[in-house]
Write a structure and sequence with these properties.
- The complex is a heterodimer.
- By secondary structure, chain A is of the alpha+beta class.
- Chain A folds into 2 domains: about 1-30; about 35-245, Sulfite Oxidase, Chain A, domain 2.
- Chain A is built from 7 helices and 10 strands.
- In chain A, the strands form 2 sheets. Chain A has a 5-stranded mixed beta sheet with strand order 2-1-10-5-6. In chain A, strands 3, 4, 7, 8 and 9 form a 5-stranded antiparallel beta sheet that branches.
- The longest helix of chain A is centred in the N-terminal third of the chain and has 30 residues, at about 5-30.
- Chain B is mainly α.
- Chain B has a domain at about 135-260.
- Chain B contains 9 helices and 2 strands.
- Chain B has helices at about 5-20, 35-60, 100-125, 130-135, 145-155, 170-195, 195-200, 205, 210-250; strands spanning about 60-65, 75-80.
- Chain B has a two-stranded antiparallel sheet.
- In chain B, about 25% of the residues are buried.
- Mean pLDDT of chain B is about 85; it is low at about 1-20.
- Classes of the chains: A alpha+beta, B mainly alpha.
- At the A-B interface, α1, α2 and β4 of A face α1, α3, α7 and α9 of B.
Chain lengths: ~250, ~260
């Protein structure tokens, strides 16, 4: 063995060791600082994790683009709805007076609210785009109560990491991390373009996350659960969509 | 190294030159190892991006200009193909299978890998003067007559001479620079502009392109330009000798196959 190849061997050995331990340290740090999404497994886990981690490092507090009133789309496109359940139709007949939003999990005071209760809290609005993963998008004014307001009201435990939100539609739920849950533009949305949120757009209550793709903005919200782990929620991937191969984090 | 092993390399040179019977002057490879590795990573990722990009497009084969666009607004143009979602008015009574879930995941994963490989390549290209030596046109390249000849020769299916195997002509240099400095940055930019998270941190990335839907339309056309480049690239490789040029991009060495003229 010549000196040259011995040196090469030592250098590449050291480089490989440094690379491997560097990756291990990076993985530990990412886990510690909440940069790993619940759907990080499988062959697309690398991409999902790189996207989520870099977005959290770059865009944790950034605000979604807001538009002027003149940019509001004249005809907002209502995406297809699954057939409404008899329970939904019953509540709709009562003009949603009996609609309840319950909040439980890692909170000091689990509670339940009517739409009127939600409307009694400070109302906020923003004119933002909703963009479908298919490619289309429109701009509307969204009115609601910031999710952070409701979370402060019930008091979340310090170890809380996710808010799981469930729809009245069967088998429809999703979750967001605390960065999105406490983000000022994240609304429990009950109004649109100056009036009540139409059923076609998720009325009486939908999750509104202007920094994530449309399918994350789930319609007909009835239940919020605050948790520190996605284990035990479905397959633990963070959403029903993720179980069908659609990313949990959709800020991209 | 130079002092401790000063006699050894000389002895080796002597031995090996006797065996091979050729003077040992270690030629620099046609393509350096980093260029070869990043080339094939890019090739694989581009294929993945192309297939998944097409899958995503067929879920809404309509394109718009400005910030917004839906099935209820007038498109800039639409592709005459069936869609993979039944709400899109395509005029066809047929809905293609919906493959958006894995397509989006693979699209973004391949994008990550190719952007990181591209970053490595650009840093390497600047440090080693690869761009200046191999890709920036030489003064003598920049004559209209030469550039035109480089364009018309392949069109008349004339194969490149053996001398052309070791460096690029002016037209090739300009084309590669255009792809590296214009098309790749533009396709990355217009892609990132469609990320709602990225746009929240860098709103100008969308507004400079004319809005979200403009970014999507630009992304589509730049992708088409890259596909056009790919076709011309493969055509030129075939013309020069597919196996020898492909072998060169794998091993770095110029093949010994006689170039036909």
């Amino acid at each position: 063995m010549t000196n040259l190849s011995r040196r090469k061997l030592i250098v590449s050995g050291l480089a490989a060791t440094a690379g491997a331990s560097g990756l291990a340290v990076a993985a530990r740090l990412a886990q510690k600082y909440g940069l790993v999404p619940p759907d990080h497994g499988g062959i697309y886990g690398l991409g999902e994790t790189l996207t989520y981690a870099s977005q959290r490092l770059l865009t944790r507090h950034s605000l979604a683009r807001e538009f002027s009133r003149s940019q509001i789309s004249p005809r907002p496109f209502p995406n297809e709805l699954a057939p409404l359940t008899p329970e939904f139709k019953r509540l709709q007949a009562g003009r949603f007076a009996d609609w309840r939003l319950s909040i439980d999990g890692m909170v000091h005071q689990p509670a339940s609210f009517s739409i009127a209760d939600l409307k009694s809290y400070p109302s906020r609005s923003h004119i933002t785009e909703i963009a479908c993963e298919e490619g289309w998008s429109y701009i509307a004014e969204w009115i609601g109560v910031p999710l952070s307001h409701m979370l402060n009201l019930v008091g979340i435990h310090p170890q809380a990491k996710y808010v799981v939100y469930t729809s009245m539609e069967p088998d429809t739920w999703d979750s967001i991390d605390m960065a999105d849950a406490l983000h000022p533009q994240t609304f429990l949305c009950y109004g649109m373009n100056g009036s009540e949120l139409p059923v076609a757009h998720g009325g009486p209550l939908r999750m509104r996350l202007p920094r994530q793709i449309g399918y994350k903005n789930i319609k007909f919200i009835t239940h919020l659960t605050v948790t520190d782990s996605m284990k035990g929620f479905g397959k633990g991937l963070g959403s029903v969509a993720a179980e069908y191969g659609y990313a949990w984090y959709t800020g991209i | 190294m130079a002092t401790s092993g000063s006699t050894q390399p000389a002895a080796e040179t002597f031995v090996s030159s006797r065996i091979s019977n050729t003077p040992v002057t270690k030629l620099a490879p046609r393509h350096s190892a980093l260029v070869r590795v990043t080339h094939w990573i890019t090739a694989l990722c581009f294929l993945a991006l192309l297939v998944t990009g097409a899958e995503i497009v067929i879920s809404h084969p309509r394109f718009y200009w400005g910030e917004t666009g839906t099935d209820l607004t007038t498109p800039l143009f639409r592709l005459p193909i069936p869609a993979s979602r039944k709400l899109v008015p395509t005029g066809y009574n047929y809905v293609l299978p919906d493959q958006n879930g894995w397509s989006r995941a693979l699209h973004f994963e391949a994008a990550w890998i190719v952007v990181l490989a591209g970053l490595l390549y650009v840093i390497y290209g600047l440090l080693t003067k690869h761009f200046r030596k191999d890709l920036v046109p030489r003064k003598s390249d920049l004559s209209w007559r030469l550039l035109l000849t480089s364009f018309t020769k392949p069109l008349r299916l004339q194969r490149p001479s053996a001398a052309e195997a070791s460096s690029y002509n002016g037209l090739q240099r300009l084309t590669y620079l255009f792809v590296i400095l214009v098309l790749f940055p533009l396709v990355i930019w217009s892609g990132l502009a469609m990320s709602l998270g990225f746009a929240s941190a860098f709103p100008w990335s969308v507004t400079l392109l004319g809005g979200r839907q403009s970014a999507r339309t630009i992304h589509f056309f730049v992708s088409l330009a890259l596909v056009l480049f790919l076709f011309v690239h493969i055509f030129m490789v075939c013309l020069a000798g597919f196996w020898s040029r492909t072998a060169t991009m794998i091993t770095g060495r110029i093949g010994t196959r006689k170039e036909r003229t």
